[in-house]
Amino acid sequence: MPDDLHPQVRALLDGLAALNLQKVQDMEVAAARAQAEAQAAARRQVYSAPEMAEVQETSTGPGFGHVPVRIYRPTQAEAAPVIVYYHGGGHVICSLDTHDLLARHLAQATGCTLVSVDYRMGPEHPFPAAVHDSFDAARWVAAQARALRVDADRLVVCGDSAGGNLAAVVALMAQDASDFAVAAQVLIYPVTDYRGGTASSRTYAKGYGALEDDTMTWFMERYLPDPARRDDWRACPRNAVLTSDLPPALIVTAECDVLRDDGFDYANQLRTAGVPVRYVEYAGMIHGFVGLLGLVDDAAAAHETIATFLSETWASREGAEPGA
User: Fold this and answer.
1) 238 with 317: CB under 8 angstroms?
2) Which tens digit of pLDDT belongs to each residue from 310-321?
3) What pTM was estimated for this model as a whole?
4) Which residues are catalytic?
């Protein structure tokens, strides 16, 4: 086991190795999805999920793509800040259920209503279906803010891995939207270019958990089967023209992750464009650690980092209003 891993992660990976699970890239899509669901179900059996005041299953409705969503309300507060959340899974696997524990914990930690988005995935629905669903979901939340009892002026886009990719893209698309705005973006080890080629994609290509460099290729081939579309900034946000009008960003990465440099480099791109950025890297952590609540201490720590960032963002906005 590599020496740079945190002891808690090393113990976790030792336990997983004993299960002899198949690698995602060695499975058919249906089997990979089933394995992800089974692992998430096992996690829910051993970690007590935070209780919510309300959990609602609904969809975005006509005019907004009829995208299924799950709404988590940690309290019954009116006009609560709202997180529009996009789950990870390479735009191919995972679901609202695999990320249910993460969603509940993040809603509780931040005090935000959280809307988890069940966007369409490849290979059945390749790019750009997920982008359309993700943008429609954010538009719908803003448009239905009163009915949803949320504050459209404190709308956050957030996601992990593939979901971080979608959150970044929605923040970019919202610059040109006349009907809603994004107040902050939280990108958790985001994919900014499936083609890799970074130092971290080589250094952590194997032996650091389920996400390997070959796994990224497997995901890309199913989400972006047409090589000509892999340059599109909606698939590859690192190719977007960034401006200072983008919302402030928190980017969370894991040191021992093929996607570490994706997040690090995108943070620098945003800073260069004049966007306020907070970058936090967790030493010895692997891809997916933010969902490993109860197994690694830095999972809960990352949720608190997000909560602090959002609190500071709201305080900064309130302080700026009188002179705006």
Assistant:
1) no
2) 999 999 987 765
3) 0.97
4) 161, 257, 287
